[in-house]
Description:
The structure is a homodimer.
Chain A: H1 9-22, E1 27-31, H2 32-40, H3 54-76, E2 81-85, H4 91-103, E3 110-114, H5 118-129, H6 140-155, E4 168-172, E5 177-181, H7 186-197, E6 205-209, H8 214-218, H9 229-243, E7 250-253, H10 257-263, E8 270-271, H11 288-294, H12 296-304, H13 317-333, E9 338-342, H14 344-354, E10 371-377, E11 382-388
Parallel strand pairs in A: 1-2, 3-4, 6-9, 7-8, 7-9
Antiparallel strand pairs in A: 4-5, 6-10, 10-11
Amino acid sequence: MVxxxxxxxxxxxxxxxxxxxxxxxxxLWVNVGDYRRARAxxxxxxxxxxxxxxATRGEREGFAMAALDDLLDWxxxxxxxxxxxxxxxxxxRRDIIRNRCAAAxxxxxxxxxxxxxxxxIDANIRRNKLGLPDYAGIGAKEAxxxxxxxxxxxxxxxxxxxxxEGSYVKLVDAGKRVISSRVEGYLSSRLVFFLxxxxxxxxxxxLTRHGESEFNVVGRIGGDAxxxxxxxxxxxxxxxxxxxxxxxAVVWTSTLQRAIATAAPLGHVQAWRALDExxxxxxxxxxxxxIKAQMPDDFAARAGDKFRYRYPRGESYADVIQRLEPVIVExxxxxxxxLIVGHQAVIRVxxxxxxxxxQDECPHLQIPLHTVVQLxxxxxxxxxxxxxx
Amino acid sequence: MVxxxxxxxxxxxxxxxxxxxxxxxxxLWVNVGDYRRARAxxxxxxxxxxxxxxATRGEREGFAMAALDDLLDWxxxxxxxxxxxxxxxxxxRRDIIRNRCAAAxxxxxxxxxxxxxxxxIDANIRRNKLGLPDYAGIGAKEAxxxxxxxxxxxxxxxxxxxxxEGSYVKLVDAGKRVISSRVEGYLSSRLVFFLxxxxxxxxxxxLTRHGESEFNVVGRIGGDAxxxxxxxxxxxxxxxxxxxxxxxAVVWTSTLQRAIATAAPLGHVQAWRALDExxxxxxxxxxxxxIKAQMPDDFAARAGDKFRYRYPRGESYADVIQRLEPVIVExxxxxxxxLIVGHQAVIRVxxxxxxxxxQDECPHLQIPLHTVVQLxxxxxxxxxxxxxx
Lengths: 389, 389
């Protein structure tokens, strides 16, 4: 990461961390500020950050290098994507990072966040900085002034990433403009596309499974069964729930009738095939008891590794993540309150992405029927509430 | 499109046209140069293009406006994506375009191609310009000099797209750097991601179905049957075919065993679930005669609209296009000679994309077994050769 303080670096870094780890990469995020707070104590005045403060400059470089050492050590142990979250505002610091990455054969991508809008910066400071341990027990006004002074210290030597620094992407004014250079490779280019969609938002996301279906009642998996009377009742309760909270919800469902019928009382919905339930292949329409009796090896294999197990002629959870990736990109792009009516496996996977769960935990997450999971954006993630209707 | 002559505008425009129409949008490409050649004659010297040539300036503006009129008329008739291929190098020209689009409620996206590398520009002129009708019967050296003079005329008044011109994307040095600004909406952001992958290349693409499978012999569709002896023979012939042409082929297959086995003699392959055959749902493993007998309504529906028909619990060709979109992006990104071993429906769809076929023609394209379709890049598309092995 590159950028002055209060430009949304950590917001972007945490989004990238969740996205990339959800895609299955071993991912580590390190924040140099955490090293400083742990080693020098949180409460340092703005002057501590002055580039010409010879008393602190060496110490601050030491924290940055300690974090970089840890990150590179972790790459040696099999890490795949490391996120180095710090201002890295000086060219000489970035040269060190680039050279050390090159020596470790780790390709780098500078992600620079640029914002010159004082309104956005001030709001960022108030929302994300005044609550830092750095300002514990200090009044908001004093803290605000100190943080502005800290930014000014960094600004004295800040040099935006230059064209000869290799791969970079610059996010200007919270994504209004995006400049990418020499971005190569599958993951990097996917990442740039993802970053083009990411913008701060405060709209909630509601996740739910469809209402009870006739297959639920008899314990059969897959299929395309209609709702029961109980399921239809949930559809009405769900519509009231959403309408009580917003008049402008965007509603996505799968293409299966139990999901479409669950959203139907809300009117216009968009049906995505990518939101269809995990394809159980030859096991579609069976009960778990039938699978256990007819295909004991498959039943045991699934119990052994529910994440990687692929139903014969069907899908694994890993396959579901692949096909949900475009949904995630659209979800980040969408700015309105969003209701997603899906199925057990797909909602587990979407929830796993939003809440930053490791891939292999996804198949074990609890997503009961007739429950709305409400996720409201916080500083760097989501706050969860569940409503059983 | 925006950019000086010989900067690859038409190359990019035609790629966009194929991609967007393959995604199902009604797409039109108009080239102002074609209007000029049709109305004023092809053979105009460089001086004709001088911005201060008062004798020709009005005429040239007339051609540009005629092309724009036609494009906007077509939007009124239901067109969805129009590509206006011209230099549009002057700010005042772009202001007219932007205002006329706004008046017609058509959102615009300027796509500017920028290149300052004389080696690339000269190669572009030699490859794409000397064969234009503009230079019929004129020696290469003279034509080259004239085209350079024409570029110089445009360069006199060229102003790159500025930040207050709304949505734009700039492709610098054939995609090495990409700058996008105020790109909003699903299609525009997908397009920018696509443009990040697109670069001129001369590597061939080979498309083939898997070798004959045991299901092919008995006329059953879908399934995951192994190869016959005849199919295994094709796998060996295919490996020899590819090895005779390159030592560095990248090989993609579906995850079905008949495709993997067909590519196996080539060693390392990447298996994509997105390349799996169209899912025939409840019809998997049936013959067409059985489908006709057991599900006469479905059989008739499929015959009536083979593109939109979705097998019960399975897929339509439209669904297959959706799931192949990431493959297309990777295909544009991949720079090595590429062999794709797929299945009838997926190869039809990939071939349709590469050869610019309308979506609804895809289900009817001829892709026989044991035939390699070789596609070699040309100026703005591909040249096709077929090899029955």
